[in-house]
Design brief:
Structural class: alpha+beta
Distance between the termini: 62 Å
Strand order of the largest sheet: 10-19-18-17-13-16
Helix content: 25-40%
Largest sheet: 6 strands, mixed
Order of helices and strands: EEEEEEEHEEHHHHHEHHEEEEEEHEEEH
Number of helices: 10
CATH architecture of the largest domain: 2-Layer Sandwich
Number of domains: 3
Length: 447
């Protein structure tokens, strides 16, 4: 009897998903461990491996929304009879009289392993992480892993041979390298503005004409399919704006003591490999403030406002495909060190594509940071049905006055968006004021 291929359930909260792409053609051969199909859910995408070897028959096409556990296809063992219509096949033995011999279905030899599907390179999270570290464009590599998947060893080899002797590898994202190649841009001449001088997509897209190679050919316009994470973000952000009464207010915070505290904690925790960020400090302040402002830790329903008993703070993390929001659970009970560890772990998992649906569910409030991009103020959009989201901006040099004497001061602006259906401007300002007071006296965040 054939082995059923199920729509894999990812996390306890997953309710539906689809086969975004079949990696093995209908009637093609697959080996155990090879990539079989790509699963798409509303929050995450992941590659699914074959559990056994044989001939793959599709029961459903790509793009059909199904429930977890639904059968999407079958794998028939060598020599096993295959029905003409697998859509009617079930998990029961198939009568030999109503079947077609295996050779009649796929007389061709097994297809060679592939390592690309469209514009996507099949690669392990470890390979993608190592590629970022070495500045290697993993999308150009040939994989040696199962099904042609690019593994960490492939990236290591490329990293040791791609750059001239004595030259450091170009630190650029794979997307930046791909855009540079398409536009005929000499990426070695581009100045990176990302972390550690890394060249980003924006750096390449804003390159002056003089840096572009003369031989670059003109290109026609292109389109990007709206699907996966980008489609989910577009849908949810639009629905959030349509279904709630969102307002945003800004408030300045004196960060002198918070800056000193962070510097001291970096030194204190250096031996443990823990490096707290300003966002970690803000999350700790938000979690404590939510204890005293229950309406900000609530959700607006059809006939009621739900005041959540627990405080679960979501942290918006930017990834190449869009935005994900992992959740730090019971954040009000977590120490600043525990928050720093959790946030760093979630950020790594987001970049490696290993976050699960459970990691991104159950949030009661969200924090979104753009300060690392030099942003002074922005309007974050509510993560519906939550009542509030706090935007964290850059720490800037400002001037305060002591009598007639100007004094240099570190300041940061917080941007709070809240649902006016849940609470009015005054209580929203009081919540934001509590967060400000905690950040200006940050010793209170350590107790």
């Amino acid at each position: 009897m054939p082995t059923e291929i199920y729509l894999v359930k990812v996390g306890m909260t997953m309710t539906e998903g689809m086969v975004e792409e079949w990696y093995v053609a209908d009637g093609g051969s697959v080996a155990k461990g090879d990539l079989l199909y790509r699963l798409e859910t509303e929050k995450v995408n992941l590659d699914v491996d074959a559990e056994t070897s044989g001939v793959v028959r599709h029961k459903v096409p790509t793009g059909v929304m199904l429930k977890p556990g639904d059968v999407v296809g079958y794998i028939y063992a060598p020599g096993e009879a295959i029905p003409e219509d697998v859509g009617s096949a079930a998990s029961t033995p198939v009568a030999s009289g109503a079947s077609t011999p295996l050779a009649a279905i796929d007389p061709r030899p097994p297809a060679a392993p592939i390592n690309r599907t469209g514009d996507r390179a099949l690669s392990s999270p470890a390979a993608r992480r190592r590629a970022r570290e070495l500045g290697v464009d993993y999308t150009t590599l040939t994989g040696t892993g199962p099904g042609g998947r690019i593994v960490e060893a492939d990236v290591e080899r490329a990293g040791s041979t791609s750059a001239p002797i004595g030259a450091a590898p170009v630190k650029a994202s794979p997307l930046a390298k791909r855009i540079a190649a398409e536009r005929g841009i000499d990426i070695t001449q581009v100045k990176g503005t990302g972390p550690g001088g890394r060249i980003t997509r924006d750096d390449v897209e804003h390159v002056p004409i003089a840096v572009t190679r003369p031989a670059a050919a003109a290109r026609s316009a292109s389109t990007i399919p709206l699907k996966g994470m980008r489609k989910t973000i577009a849908t949810r952000m639009h629905e959030s704006l349509q279904s709630s009464a969102q307002l945003t207010m800004d408030m300045d915070v004196v960060m002198e003591d918070a800056v000193k505290l962070r510097e001291q904690l970096i030194t204190e925790w250096e031996g443990e490999g823990i490096r707290p960020t300003y966002t970690d400090i803000v999350i700790r302040a938000v979690a404590k403030a939510l204890r005293s402002h229950a309406l900000m830790n609530s959700s607006f329903g059809a006939n009621e406002i739900t005041l959540h008993g627990d405080i679960h703070v979501g942290l918006a993390v930017a990834v190449e495909e869009g935005l994900v929001v992992p959740v730090i659970r019971n954040a009000d009970r977590a120490s600043l060190k525990e928050i720093a560890v959790a946030a760093a772990s979630f950020a790594r998992a987001a970049r490696d594509g290993t976050l699960g649906l459970d990691d991104m569910s159950g949030g009661t409030f969200t924090v979104s940071a753009l300060g690392m991009f030099g942003v002074d103020s922005f309007t974050p959009i509510l993560n519906s049905p939550q009542a509030g989201i706090l935007g964290v901006n850059r720490i800037r040099d400002d001037v305060a006055w002591q009598g007639e004497r100007p004094v240099k001061q570190k300041r940061m602006r917080l941007s709070l968006t809240w649902d006016h259906r849940v609470l009015d401007g005054a209580p929203a300002a009081q919540f934001l004021g509590t967060v400000r007071d905690l950040l200006e006296a940050p010793y209170r965040l350590l107790v």
